[in-house]
Design brief:
The structure holds two protein chains of two kinds. Chain A has a seven-stranded mixed β-barrel. Chain A is of the alpha+beta class. Chain A contains eight helices and nine strands. Chain A is extended and about 95 Å long. Chain A has a domain of 105 residues: Beta Barrel (Ku70, Chain: A, Domain 2). Chain B folds into two domains: 115 residues, DNA primase, PRIM domain (Alpha-Beta Complex), CATH 3.90.920.10; 163 residues, Alpha-Beta Plaits (2-Layer Sandwich). By secondary structure, chain B is an alpha+beta fold. The chains are: A alpha+beta, B alpha+beta. At the A-B interface, helix 5, helix 7 and helix 8 of A face helix 4 and helix 7 of B.
Chain lengths: 297, 302
């Protein structure tokens, strides 16, 4: 049986429908552990005080707001929980709106609402009525110590709930002043027609299953191959490794060997052109400002 | 010396407190003596600090009380209004560091029991362009300063092949530092990999003497050539800064002859200089580190 993550009831007017909330998202992230490369020891994270190696026990960690750099207002757990929204079990419907009016930017995480035991009839009735109206219910409810805004929709006798962002959480385009062109640059009619045609030719019905997380699939494949003990050759497209230093060292070694030459006096001629240039510059300068000065004092 | 008094330094008024407080218990060296040392060393020291963000290491309860000691990057809020600061981009945002542009600020640092001064290798007006390439030679026991001298001489020789001069100073603690003056346009993006390559080459050529990796366990009996300080956010102990050791020893410029002598004789004790000895040497030699500020050099292109 599916595990509900919350239970309560949808309420509006005199109607009260007990429901259970289920997550509608299957977390498909591949969990990776951190280990030490040499011996596979698991990496442990410790909480230490900044600038020390001293571990801070959980009970001594408090949250704080930094007013100005270095000045904090600590907030105890008690103070925080006193402020937390009152735990109610109600999903309070505020309004019904046309779904198309909601900009997808406001949608956050999707959930399913299922009927609580004995509430099946009321649930079906509500779902059917909402589906017929084609409207979404905008509701408030408290979940995980936070007040949420949500949109409830109905399709195929199933109610879904999608948490929503509050208006002030969504950044209006106008706040990103220089991100967009101030004035619409003049678009050549022909060019626009071409773009429109291209859009037309790529238009199709939306089928979510036709888009796959290819990165995840490749990562899984890599893990499987490695688990089977097969040699894995990193593809060449991988980011270049920062191997510059050893090369630089080799270049340095070569350069010094060349500078050394058979005798000390010939090093100038044998070294690379650039070093010998800096040599003369450095030497001539140092004679006037370098040791001579220090000795003369 | 009175406990507390207000003094005027170069036209700046400063309140000095707790001057009788012993900051070096083993040596009986007081805060007043720390102030006195910095006042005397200022003429040669300030030019090396001027224009640079300085991290203060303060020892309010003396050098033995490490619990009370702390590094201070942010220039204290209660600073006199004439103390200059410079904003530095740190990981956590901008921090205003103190800048020492003269004797009064240096005395104020001493008043804060900021025994150790750790400046940036670059000036704040060109934060990405270090004025020097620096190597911190840190001996892992039983290696000592004599081993550092041997490594330092190798460094001088290496740079000598490119016609580039370098200058040694004691760290004031256990090791030595070698500075390669640049004062031109090389950025950390050039100096850091270059320093690393040098360290790696030294390690390759003399694996029994040199280690270029940070890991403590590998350092035993070897000299760790720390190349990583050639970084925008790193600092190195200032030349002439006192150190928090048993005795008030300072990071002291030395001559290559002195380095050679120590390497040949195996006696590193001649390379330890306490406050008074440092002042005597300045009297005698002037600022041996002056060329580090003046000499313009470029690293060879590899």
């Amino acid at each position: 049986m599916a595990r509900a993550i919350w239970s309560g009831s949808i309420s509006f007017g005199l109607l009260n429908v007990p429901v259970r909330l289920y997550s509608a998202v299957a977390r498909r992230n591949i969990a990776l552990r951190e280990i030490r490369d040499s011996d596979s020891a698991r990496i442990k994270h410790r909480r230490v005080a900044e600038g020390t190696d001293e571990e801070v026990p959980y009970e001594n960690i408090v949250k704080a707001y930094e007013i100005t750099p270095g000045r904090y207002v600590p907030l105890t757990k008690d103070e925080m929980s006193a402020l937390a929204p009152e735990k109610t079990r109600a999903i309070e419907v505020q309004d019904f709106v046309n779904i198309e009016e909601i900009d997808p930017m406001y949608f956050d995480s999707p959930y399913y609402l299922g009927p609580a035991d004995g509430a099946e009839k009321a649930y079906s009735l509500l779902a059917a009525a909402m589906e017929k109206s084609g409207k979404a219910a905008i509701a408030r409810f408290v979940f995980r110590n936070k007040e949420h805004l949500a949109a409830i929709r109905a399709s195929d006798n199933v109610l879904t709930l999608t948490t929503m962002r509050f208006a002030d959480e969504v950044v209006p385009a106008s706040e990103l002043d220089d991100a967009f062109p101030q004035k619409q640059g003049k678009v050549a009619k022909k060019e626009q027609e071409m773009a429109e045609k291209l859009i037309e030719s790529l238009s199709t019905e939306f089928d979510p299953s036709s888009y796959r997380d290819e990165y995840r699939e490749q990562l899984l494949e890599l893990i499987e191959t490695k688990a089977e003990g097969k040699e894995v050759v990193a593809p060449e497209t991988e980011e270049p490794q920062p191997t510059k230093a050893p090369d630089l060292m080799a270049a340095l070694e070569e350069s010094i060997a060349a500078a050394k030459g058979p005798t000390r006096s010939s090093k100038k001629a044998k070294s690379a052109p650039k070093p010998s240039k800096s040599k003369t510059k450095a030497k001539s300068k140092s004679k006037s400002s370098g040791r001579a000065k220090a000795k003369s004092k | 010396m009175a406990e507390n008094r207000v003094v005027e330094v170069d036209g700046r008024e400063l309140k000095l407190t707790n001057l009788d407080k012993v900051l070096y218990p083993q040596a009986g060296f007081t805060k007043g003596q720390v102030v006195d040392y910095y006042a005397n060393v200022a003429p040669v020291m300030v030019p090396h600090l001027d224009g640079r963000a300085v991290t203060l290491r303060r020892f309010p309860e003396g050098v033995d009380d490490l619990d009370a000691a702390f590094f201070e990057k942010r220039c204290p809020k209660h600073r006199p209004k004439w103390v200059k600061t410079t904003p530095v981009q740190a990981e956590t945002g901008k921090i205003d560091f103190c800048v020492c542009d003269g004797l009064p600020t240096l005395i104020w640092f001493a008043q804060l029991a900021a025994i150790e001064l750790h400046p940036s290798l670059s000036r704040s007006r060109a934060p990405k362009r270090p004025t020097v390439l620096a190597f911190d030679l840190d001996p892992g026991a039983p290696a000592d300063v004599v081993d550092c001298c041997r490594v330092a001489l190798r460094l001088r020789e290496m740079f000598g092949h490119f016609g580039v001069e370098s200058f040694p100073k004691t760290s004031g603690s256990k090791g030595l530092q070698v500075y390669v003056p640049l004062n031109k346009k090389d950025s950390y993006e050039v100096t850091k990999p270059f320093a690393k390559a040098i360290a790696q080459l030294l390690e390759k050529q003399t694996p029994d003497l040199v280690v270029s990796k940070m890991k403590k366990v590998e350092r035993e009996g070897k000299v760790f050539v720390d190349w990583s300080q050639n970084h925008e956010r790193k600092t190195t102990i200032a030349v002439y800064s006192l150190r928090a050791r048993e005795h008030p020893t300072a990071s002291t410029p030395i001559t290559w002859d002195e380095v050679e002598t120590a390497a040949d004789s195996g006696d590193g004790s001649t390379l330890v200089f306490a406050a008074d000895a440092v002042l005597d040497r300045i009297e005698q030699h002037g600022d041996l580190f002056a060329p580090v500020l003046e000499l313009e050099q470029e690293l060879p292109e590899l």
